[in-house]
Specification:
The chain has 296 residues and is an alpha/beta fold. The chain has 13 helices and 9 strands. The strands form 2 sheets. It has a 6-stranded parallel sheet, sandwiched between helices. The protein has a 3-stranded mixed sheet with strand order 7-8-9.
Length: 296
């Protein structure tokens, strides 16, 4: 492994363990986050904590961002890009709009740097275990240069295409996941009403044509899958607010590209409504709202 100097910005539920894994692998990590508790955690994990975003980008081989939205990525790039040395590899792991990802990449290239959009799938558990899936957009040579760093944080790293295409893969994946979880939850609640136990439902469907990752790895009711958030009072996991955000991005992309995406649009509306009262719960808790709205 080649030791890299890395700047890491965004030390939330996902970013903190990702940065910690880079430190544990022997990389030199400068970390920044505006939240004091996040900085304290990064310091405890062995990163060197700095006081400004620009400091985290100065004289680094790689700068990684893990931020809540595209506007924040674009805003922070105005600080980072001038501070970084020419040719720095910028890897944005945030989940943002494809147009914002392309705009960020254009800014980076104009400033003399090399951009990758690399959103992730796998949640907090995957970030902690270093088993995330990275969906990467950018130039092939830049992807090759970033692969060693990404493989520290992920179990699978896929080059999906040019700038912005990593984000395209992420929103398509999460649109399908959101739709799957709603359909699964409706089927489970129907099964309850018809007298079918959760375990019997799982035993049949997990090996039948209705099988899905949402069921076998993330079952939204307690019991059949012990590691699922349903067995921990729906603590995320992947929070409902984040699923709502991703489905909104997908719905916007459907409309912008003229796709007749009725289920994607409906899933976005369902999770938007659910997020009004359950933003901090795991997205699989949608089963509880379906049950309540069904009078059960």
């Amino acid at each position: 492994m080649t030791k890299k100097t890395i700047g890491f910005l965004g030390l939330g539920h996902m970013g903190a363990p990702m940065a910690a894994n880079l430190v544990a692998a022997g990389h030199d990590v400068l970390a920044f986050d505006p939240v004091p508790a996040a900085r304290d955690q990064a310091r405890a994990d062995g990163a060197t904590v700095v006081t400004t975003a620009a400091e985290a980008a100065r004289d680094r081989d790689v700068v990684i961002t893990m931020l809540p939205n595209g506007k924040l990525v674009l805003d922070v790039y105005t600080e980072l890009l001038p501070a970084a040395r020419p040719g720095t590899l910028f890897i944005d792991c945030s989940t943002i709009d494809v147009a914002d990802a392309k705009a960020a990449a254009e800014q980076a290239v104009s400033a003399g740097h090399r951009p990758l959009d690399a959103p992730v799938s796998g949640g907090v558990a995957g970030a902690t275990a270093g088993t995330l899936t990275f969906m990467v957009g950018g130039a092939p040579a830049d992807f090759a240069d970033g692969l060693e760093v990404l493989e520290v944080m992920g179990g699978k790293v896929v080059h999906c295409g040019d700038a912005g295409v990593g984000q395209a893969a992420k929103i398509c994946n999460n649109m399908l996941l959101g739709i799957s979880m709603i359909g699964l939850s409706e089927a489970l609640v129907l099964g309850e009403k018809l007298g079918l136990s959760h375990q019997s439902f799982f035993d049949v469907v997990s090996t039948a044509s209705g099988q899905s990752w949402a069921l076998t790895s993330y079952c939204p009711v307690p019991g059949p899958v012990p590691a699922s958030p349903a067995n921990n009072d729906y603590q995320p996991g992947f929070a409902t607010a984040l699923m709502s955000k991703d489905l909104t991005l997908a719905a916007n992309a459907l409309r912008a590209n003229g796709i007749d995406g009725q289920l994607g649009e409906l899933a976005a509306a369902i999770y938007d409504r659910f997020a009004q009262t359950a933003a901090g719960r795991d997205f699989s808790a949608i089963v509880t709202e379906i049950r309540e709205r069904s009078g059960q």
